[in-house]
Amino acid sequence: MKQTEPQTDRESLYLEVSSVNGAVSLPLHSSIALFLLSYTECSSFHVHLVTDQADILPSLSGLVPGGLAVSEVRRDELPGLVRMCRLPAALEPEACFCRAGLAVVLRYIIQSTCQLMPGRRDVASLLGFKNTCLKACAEVRL
Question: GO CC: one term (predicted)?
Fold first, then answer.
């Protein structure tokens, strides 16, 4: 994990961070999105960890995969479009378009990876019918 300044040419991925009694943790949906970014080795996203506190990155160093461009942002500093969406959310830099919700964001990460690295059949196999949805358990052979 490296804390970096956001780049305007990269898409932004906003993930929630929660804190209970001062202990900072990642909710399940944020952990799943980070795992998928790590698995797909997709570097086209800048990850913004959304929190109500300041300086949370050091306490999350073991929970965020290395190699990702990560920064923290306070909830009141979110772009207006993202503020109206449920996290996780992916924001395109120029299109003023926000994808929100876990399944939508995961599918978008997979599709982005497949566009950047067409040879990654293992990643493409995570998509289901006509590559428009996540693969359902019934579509997987044991």
Answer: cytoplasm
pLDDT of res. 1: 44
CA distance 103 to 121: 20
What pLDDT, on the 0 to 100 scale, is given for residue 140? 55
pLDDT value for 137: 65
Q: Give one word for 44, left, alpha or beta, with left for phi > 0 and alpha for psi -120 to 50.
A: alpha
- Domain 2-139 falls under CATH 3.30.1490: no
- 84 Cβ contact partners less than 8 Å away, ≥ 6 residues apart: 98
Positions in the chain short of pLDDT 50: 1-3, 6
DSSP 134: B
Question: What residues pair up with 115 in beta bridges, in sequence order?
Answer: none
pLDDT value of residue 142: 52
3-state SS, residue 131: helix
C-alpha span between 72 and 130 (Å, rounded)? 36
Roughly what angle, to the nearest 10 degrees, separates helices 102-116 and 28-40? Answer: 10
Q: Where are the domains of the chain?
A: 2-139
